[in-house]
Amino acid sequence: MVEMDSTFPRRFEYDQLSELPGTPCVPHFYFPGASAEGGADGVLVMIRPAAGTPWIGTFAFGHNQGRATTRVLTTPNPNVICVVADGAGYLVSASAPRDWQSVRADPVLDVRQVRERSLLVFADFTDLVAYGASGVVWAVRIGADDLRIVEVSADRIGGTWWNPAAGATVEFVVDPSNGELIGGERW
After folding, report:
1. Does the model's pTM come out above 0.90?
2. What is the 8-class DSSP label of residue 117?
3. Residue 70 falls within a domain, yes or no?
4. Which end of the chain, N or C, is more open, meaning fewer C-beta atoms within 10 Å of its C-beta?
5. Is residue 175 part of a domain?
6. pLDDT of res. 65
7. Beta pairing partners, 120
8. Which region, left, alpha or beta, applies to residue 52 given φ > 0 means left and ψ of -120 to 50 means alpha?
9. Are 97 and 29 within 8 A, CB to CB?
10. Are 125 and 145 in contact (CB under 8 A)?
11. Residues with pLDDT less than 70, the chain
C-alpha cells in the first residue's frame, strides 16, 4: 500500500487502486505524458475533483534506487495532487489531468510537506527543490551525494550529505523560505 498524505487542503478526493476496474467507467491517463492510449505500469490512483469528471491515473515507476520513495500527497495548490512512484515525481491538476509536470528532483528520494510555509520539498541525491502553490519556489544544490532530510519545521530544513573530499557525512540547515544555507555546510 502506498503512503497517502493529506496535509494540505484539497479540492479533490483520491484513493489508491490495486487494479483497474473490470469495465472502464472513467477516463484513464498514463503518466508521464497524460496519454489516454496507454503507458507503463505504475501507481494507480482514482481522482475525483470537486468540479469535473473523475479519472484514473497510472503513474509510471521511476528509478528503483533502494531509497526512492513512493507516496501520494496533497500540495500547497488545493487543485494539484502529487504522486511519487518509485522515485518518479508527478504534479497533476486534479480537474485537468493533461495539465501536469514532472518534479525537478530525480529520483525523488524524499518529499516533505512544510504546511506553515505552504511548501512541498523534494530531495534527490544532491539537491532540494521546493514547490509552492504556483510551482518551484527555490532549488539548491546541497551536497555531493547521499543527501538526506532529517528534520523539517517552519524555520529550518536540516539533514546530512556525504562529502567525499572530507570522507565524512556532514550536516546542513537551510531556511525553508528561500533555500539559503543557515547552518552546517554545502557543496
Report:
1. yes
2. G
3. yes
4. N
5. no
6. 66
7. 113, 131
8. left
9. yes
10. yes
11. 1, 65
Helix (H, G, I), strand (E, B) or coil at 85: strand
Quick one: pLDDT at residue 104? Answer: 97
Report yes or no on 158 lying in a domain. Answer: no
Q: Dihedral angle at the C-alpha atoms of 141, 107, 109, 29, nearest 10 degrees? A: 130
Which residue range is the domain that position 91 belongs to?
A: 3-141
Domains of the chain: total: 1
Instruction: Look at residue 115 and give its three-state secondary structure.
Output: helix
Pairing type for strands 55-60 and 28-31 reads parallel
Burial-class residue 184 by CB neighbours within 10 Å (0-12, 13-18, 19+). Answer: middle
Q: Give how far the C-alpha of residue 88 lies from the chain's centroid of Cα atoms, to the nearest Å.
A: 8
CA angle 172, 173, 174 (to 5 degrees): 125
Distances (CA, A) of 184 to 4, 28, 115, 142: 32, 46, 24, 10
Q: Is residue 154 part of a domain?
A: no
Strands (E), the chain: 3-5, 12-17, 28-31, 42-49, 55-60, 71-74, 80-85, 88-93, 100-102, 110-114, 119-123, 127-132, 135-141, 145-153, 156-163, 168-174, 181-184
Task: Please give the pLDDT value at position 22.
Answer: 79
3-state secondary structure of 178: coil
